[in-house]
Design brief:
Blueprint lengths: L5 E9 L2 E10 L4 E6 L7 H12 L3 E11 L6 E5 L1 H20 L9 H5 L5 E5 L5 H72 L5 H15 L2 H19 L5 H21 L3 H21 L4
Parallel strand pairs: 3-4
Antiparallel strand pairs: 1-2, 2-4, 5-6
Helix pairs in contact: 1-4, 4-6, 4-8, 6-7, 7-8
């Protein structure tokens, strides 16, 4: 079992640069992959996205790459982006005019303030061939993904142990409900006989067919055999999913809905304080299990 929660960090160097990877994952309904990588390395983001998508199927995953040059190496230079500068100055002019119309006095921006605006200063890469650096980064990526997968696997094993314990508890409660159902049957029969005796004592006009219909309806309304059988089947299916190395999060999530449906029906048909208590305990365990399942890939 694999968890969607994981973290991995890795350092590397090559092609005149040093870098630090940061890969994090938390639970999510699908795969939401967010990358923060240098955009001046041709084709890097697309290649990274493709590799991560091969390794991860679900979760909110963020990959960050911080890149620095080796000391003594100067491959970049700063240049002024004239188009961005003109747009920034025009925007500042409109802001100042709007402020004056509103009677608000603004501090005049300095040249340093303008230079810090996004896009005004470009970092121009003098070395146009970024293929060697991209290759070095992609060669380092498998190690990062392996560390990430190892942590998610360790988290998954812990999840599997928790889920197994919860399934054991559900199985035990289901067996207890079966025993209580047998006890309840005898009690129901006594209650029904007492009620029938009171009805017969009060009137001589009892329609036998109507009485048979009511008895049959009562039996159907209070019979929980199917619900208990389905709970047993759901436990077996969930155990198989927990042992399956493939991504099973969605299947388990669906099973949690089915578990809760049977527990709700059991409570509504209980007609017994003991059986109602078992049903409520079942709902508590199932709800706790559903929270854990949300982290399964």
């Amino acid at each position: 079992m694999i968890s969607m929660t994981g973290f991995a960090a890795r350092r590397g160097a090559g092609s005149g640069h040093a870098w630090v990877w940061d890969l994090r994952g938390v639970n999510g309904k699908g795969l939401d992959l967010r990358l923060r990588v240098p955009d001046w390395i041709d084709g890097l983001e697309a290649a990274l996205r493709a590799e991560v998508q091969k390794a991860v199927t679900r979760g909110n995953v963020s990959l960050t790459l911080k890149l620095v040059q080796d000391e003594g190496r100067d491959d970049t230079a700063f240049r002024l982006n004239e188009t961005a500068l003109a747009a920034a100055l025009a925007a500042l002019g409109r802001v100042e005019a709007a402020a004056m119309d509103a009677g608000v006095t603004l501090r005049q921006p300095t040249a340093a303030d303008v230079l810090t605006l996004r896009g005004v200063i470009d970092a121009a890469v003098q070395e146009t061939d970024t293929a060697p650096l991209r290759a070095a980064l992609l060669a380092d990526l498998p190690g990062l993904l392996a560390d990430f997968h190892a942590m998610r696997g360790a988290e998954g094993q812990a999840l599997a142990a928790v889920l197994t314990g919860q399934l054991d508890r559900i199985a035990a409660l289901t067996a207890e409900a079966q025993r209580e159902t047998a006890t309840r049957a005898a009690t129901q029969a006594d209650t029904l006989r007492e009620g029938l005796a009171r009805v017969l004592a009060a009137t001589d006009a009892v329609d036998p067919s109507r009485l048979a219909q009511e008895l049959a309806l009562l039996a159907v309304k209070t019979d929980v055999t199917e619900e208990l059988d389905r709970l047993i089947a759901h436990v077996a299916a969930a155990r198989a999913h927990v042992a399956d190395p493939a991504p099973v999060g969605r299947k388990l999530d669906f099973l949690m809905q089915e578990f809760m449906r049977e527990a709700n029906t059991l409570c509504s048909k209980a007609q017994s304080l003991a059986l109602t208590r078992i049903g409520l305990d079942l709902k508590t365990v199932i709800d706790q299990m559903r929270e854990q399942v949300q982290n399964v890939e």
